[in-house]
Amino acid sequence: MTRSELEARRAEGERAAELGLTLRVMIREHLAASQEVLTRVPTQQAGSLLAVTEQAIDAFVEGYERAQHQAVRQEEAARREFIDDLLYGRSDLGRLAERAERFGLRLSQAHAVAVASGPEPYGDGYPVARGIESAVLTRFAGRQILLTTKDGRLICVAPGDQPDVLAFFAKQAYAATDGGKVAIGRSHPGAGGVVHSYEEALNALELAERMGLDGPVLHAADLLVYPVLTRDRQAMADLVENVLGPLRNGRGGAQTFIDTLTAYFDSGCVATEAARRLSLSVRALTYRLERIHSLTGADPADPVNRYTLQTAVIGARLLDWPDTEG
């Protein structure tokens, strides 16, 4: 076959793919046409006819696959653009809702978002992402769920009235990422609700990193007190400085005493448990608490002083004090 004839076959293959014709049927049609011609040619030319048929089918399939690959790339680009617009709220909400139906979401409903992070970044097509997506979609076949990745994190968007979906995703993500963390935002209505829930989940992950929060799954609803505490950052900074500033004068600096107070409060103010967490003797821990009392004038064992100290310690951790003071 000539170059122009081969290119014509490729163009026909592309057109067949665009029309949605199946490749199996089209190959069968080629073979049927060759079989018909074969009955009318001399026997000595049969080999040539088969060679031409092979060329024609090969060119046709090449064009068909090229069109399919192009369609897949366009679909992936459209899906990525939609996800970016969905998670950042950069598109007209009405138009976004129309596009969402194409990807299995109804933005007129409330949705919640779970975000998982691990020791390494993950992208679409990565084995970890594919494994989690397969497990979730198999477990909840027919549900309106969107699974994707963004900035190296794994993301699941599910209807707000189906918390079992996000709980299962969290379990799968925790196992697949070798102990990564998963944060789940609250359920919010509308297209803007997806953005809101996504931002809550991201903030929860950041907060967990900064505060050293334990637990593989974090719920934004359980962490609402922290945004409240930092809403007025200047007031919080003043509290931290006024209450904990004198700890700089102690041996080891302020951070040693902050770590002591953190362990003490996290253990429910039980000295033996706090000492164990710090790998100290109870006597050494008691000495540190007494030193904190003498430096700050606030007694960690006193309920009134304890609240002030604990709030200041939380503020110090949120503000990375004293590392970022000034």
Task: Explain how this protein is built.
This protein is of the alpha+beta class and 326 residues long. The chain folds into 3 domains: 3-77; 100-221, Alpha-Beta Plaits (2-Layer Sandwich), CATH 3.30.70; 227-318, Arc Repressor Mutant, subunit A (Orthogonal Bundle), CATH 1.10.10. Helix content is 62%, strand content 9%. The protein contains 13 helices and 6 strands. Strands 1, 2, 3, 4, 5 and 6 form a 6-stranded mixed β-sheet that branches. A hairpin with a 2-residue loop joins strand 2 and strand 3 (153-159). Helix 1 crosses helix 3 and helix 2 (23-38) packs antiparallel against helix 3 (46-88). The chain starts with a helix and ends in an 8-residue tail after the last helix. The model has no long low-confidence stretch (mean pLDDT 88). InterPro entries: CdaR-like_regulators, CdaR_GGDEF, PucR_C-HTH_dom, PucR_C-HTH_sf. Residues 258-313 form the PucR C-terminal helix-turn-helix domain. Pfam families: GGDEF_2, HTH_30. Residues 89-207 form the CdaR GGDEF-like domain. This is Helix-turn-helix domain-containing protein.
Short description:
By secondary structure, the protein is of the alpha+beta class. It is built from 13 helices and six strands. The protein has helices spanning 3-18, 23-38, 46-88, 93-102, 127-139, 163-176, 190-211, 225-229, 233-244, 254-266, 271-278, 282-296, 303-318, and strands at residues 110-117, 146-150, 153-159, 181-184, 188-189, 217-219.
Which SSEs are present, and which pair or pack?
Blueprint: H1 3-18, H2 23-38, H3 46-88, H4 93-102, E1 110-117, H5 127-139, E2 146-150, E3 153-159, H6 163-176, E4 181-184, E5 188-189, H7 190-211, E6 217-219, H8 225-229, H9 233-244, H10 254-266, H11 271-278, H12 282-296, H13 303-318
